[in-house]
Write a structure and sequence with these properties.
With 114 residues, the chain is mainly α. The protein folds into two domains: 42 residues, no CATH class; 67 residues, no CATH class. It has three helices and no strands. Helix 2 runs antiparallel to helix 3. The longest helix is centred in the N-terminal third of the chain and has 33 residues. The radius of gyration is 22 Å and the shape is flat.
Length: 114
Amino acid sequence: MEVLVAFIAFFATVFGIYYVHITTRNKERMALIDKGADASLFNTGKEGQNSLLNWNKATLKTGMFFMGIALGIIVGAILSNAGVLYDGANYPAMIFFFGGLSLVLFYIVDRKNK
């Protein structure tokens, strides 16, 4: 029963934070429009504009990171079966190693594309 209450509280908190974020953003945008600000201010992430979050890059980074984690799990299982590393250390070590390696590779790919 306590676990159910904890899950409900967690999801209610996440929903509440998201709701406050959306309503605050809407109020800010309406205030800017009322004052006559340019509406192109809200066109973030479009072609030709710099934005803080580029969805193509975020998707590539996330995909590479999860592929690195999966590769780390596979290599950890192989090392565990081969007896190279101890059972307790191989999985976390390989997950962190290949996850970090995938983020470094993303950085290299991203710099070459610029």
